[in-house]
Design brief:
Elements: H1 6-17, H2 21-27, H3 35-43, H4 51-61, H5 73-84, H6 87-102
Helix pairs in contact: 2-3
């Protein structure tokens, strides 16, 4: 099985939200009798949640889905802040990044 950053990110986000595995699982729509076990398996990398399940978990935790796939801690933190920004803020940030690329500070796509 290929290791993913999902277990680490999931535990970090759940701890930040101060939720138990059971509470998170139930809030994400899992059957209460198995919510804790499923979340525990996700955090221990025994199973990987499918995309739709991860979307529900992300919504409960207030994280963008890409956060859970970020291998780099700094990128994960950036994604958390991006997830909290509105469309106008994201557009302004994108334009600033594009300007930096044109000025030679970073390379573009």
């Amino acid at each position: 099985m290929t290791k993913t950053p999902i277990p680490k990110r999931l535990k970090e986000a759940r701890d930040r939200a101060d939720l138990s595995q059971t509470d998170l699982g139930i809030a994400a729509g899992m059957d209460p009798s198995g919510a804790s076990a499923r979340m525990n398996q996700y955090e221990r990398d025994k199973h990987v949640p499918d995309y739709q399940t991860l979307r529900r978990i992300a919504a409960v935790l207030g994280c963008p889905v890409p956060y859970f796939y970020a291998e780099d801690d700094t990128l994960a933190e950036i994604l958390l802040y991006l997830g909290r920004m509105g469309d106008a803020g994201k557009t302004a940030l994108l334009e600033a990044l594009k300007r930096s690329a044109v000025e030679g500070d970073i390379s573009g796509p």
